[in-house]
């Protein structure tokens, strides 16, 4: 159903209609007091009502769109089916993956084009409202799951992942990579500083990994952790570009999800970004610990559950803090998909993954730090240990070229607005 269309055949209230032959009677004498105003010329009336940005609010119009939800459901479905096929070798599961990929990406009649040219378009007249906005790329963040699913079928040598599908999907990914890197929308997203940029990096790195460009994927991730990541996490673990929003807990968790995804992608490529530090000496773990300490304050606590499992798997949980949190809030957490995904053995380049390998090789060195092989990028700001000293605030690099930066379409923030979040003291950790 097209936007604005209705399933009703009439715009009027349904009731008993008069016979068509009986016209309404006219009054011979006016009973209404004439209006003192004159007619207004069409040029003096509104022809459109511009949308007003309200942070954290979603326009109900979007409920008429099925694209974003379909992309999310498809990506989760192919991943679950690929895992099921890997474990059970049920061809029905691998066929489900192949069929979903065909329908969503490869079919000439139903497949999407390798771009998001009309993603999160803001309706209205004029050319500016005939294309999408930079925020639309976010709706394909499930692309990492698609890559994971196909990789599972590849490794399992599924007969349903045929050479023809492999070639067609490779071609699609190559075109999507080109669009991400060369289109105005793609370049705009790449210039941001918040979760939109972080998820953009996830997609671009995953797509390059899919086509076999591991050097390119590594370069994308290295660039992110050497640059934008430096300004995303304050010394306390706060994420100012997210906490300045109207739903800070949600956005902190959202960007953390993307940061963890980027670290996982790096781990798959033999890189350790788990120990990468921001300009203020904070790591991904610091960001999670801050979230757990400040709490949701009325928002959904469940947003953070998967990230607790991921950080526990990557960094270890020597004090049992993370397991205690999950046990308290998710009694069945070990039966959740996120727990299945997040095991130290799946993150061999993380601190906990290296320690586990060391334990397996020589139990006598249990718990020793094996991070000497870390590929942590050398950050341009020479970050220090967050526990050692306070780092003076400096405006994030994204403000070098503009007095304000865009967080969402039409929603801007200045350096002065972010400064208090960077300078917040580290909260007392009450989760231990």
TrEMBL record:
Keyword DNA damage among UniProt keywords: no
Record-linked Pfam families: Alginate_lyase (PF05426)
Organism this protein belongs to: Phlebiopsis gigantea (strain 11061_1 CR5-6) (White-rot fungus)
Protein name listed in UniProt: Alginate lyase domain-containing protein
SUPFAM superfamilies: Chondroitin AC/alginate lyase
GO cellular component terms, A-Z: periplasmic space
Region (Disordered): 1-39, 350-384
Gene3D superfamilies per UniProt: Chondroitin AC/alginate lyase
InterPro entries associated with the record: Alginate_lyase_dom, Chondroitin_lyas
């Amino acid at each position: 159903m097209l936007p604005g269309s209705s399933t009703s055949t009439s715009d009027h209230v349904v009731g008993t209609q008069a016979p068509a032959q009986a016209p309404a009677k006219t009054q011979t004498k006016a009973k209404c007091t004439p209006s003192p105003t004159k007619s207004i010329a069409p040029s003096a009336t509104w022809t459109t009502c511009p949308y007003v940005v309200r942070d954290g609010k979603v326009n109900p119009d979007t409920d008429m769109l099925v694209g974003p939800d379909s992309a999310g459901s498809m990506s989760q479905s192919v991943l679950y089916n690929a895992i099921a096929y890997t474990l059970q070798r049920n061809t029905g599961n691998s066929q489900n993956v192949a069929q979903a990929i065909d329908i969503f990406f490869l079919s000439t009649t139903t497949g999407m084009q390798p771009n998001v040219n009309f993603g999160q378009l803001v309706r209205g007249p004029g050319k500016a409202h005939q294309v999408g906005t930079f925020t639309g790329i976010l709706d394909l963040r499930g692309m990492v799951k698609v890559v994971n699913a196909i990789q599972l079928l590849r490794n399992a040598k599924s007969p349903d992942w045929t050479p023809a599908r492999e070639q067609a999907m490779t071609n699609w990914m190559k075109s999507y990579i080109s669009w991400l890197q060369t289109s105005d929308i793609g370049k705009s997203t790449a210039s941001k500083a918040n979760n939109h940029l972080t998820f953009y990096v996830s997609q671009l790195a995953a797509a390059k990994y899919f086509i076999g460009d591991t050097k390119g994927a590594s370069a994308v991730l290295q660039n992110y952790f050497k640059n934008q990541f430096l300004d995303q996490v304050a010394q306390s673990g706060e994420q100012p570009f997210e906490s300045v929003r109207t739903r800070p807990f949600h956005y902190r968790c959202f960007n953390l999800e993307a940061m963890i995804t980027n670290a996982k992608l790096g781990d798959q490529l033999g890189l350790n970004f788990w120990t990468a530090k921001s300009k203020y000496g904070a790591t991904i773990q610091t960001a999670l610990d801050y979230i757990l300490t400040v709490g949701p304050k009325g928002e959904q606590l469940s947003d953070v559950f998967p990230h607790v499992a991921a950080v526990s798997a990557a960094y270890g949980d020597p004090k049992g803090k993370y397991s205690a949190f999950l046990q308290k809030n998710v009694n069945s957490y070990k039966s959740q998909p996120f727990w299945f995904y997040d095991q130290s053995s799946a993150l061999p380049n993380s601190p906990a993954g290296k320690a586990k390998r060391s334990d397996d090789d020589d139990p006598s060195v249990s718990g020793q730090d094996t991070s000497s092989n870390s590929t942590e990028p050398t950050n341009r700001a020479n970050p220090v240990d967050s526990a050692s000293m306070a780092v003076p605030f400096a405006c994030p690099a994204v403000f070098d070229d503009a007095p304000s930066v865009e967080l969402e379409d039409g929603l801007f923030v200045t350096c002065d607005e972010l400064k208090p979040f960077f300078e917040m003291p580290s909260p007392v950790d009450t989760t231990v």
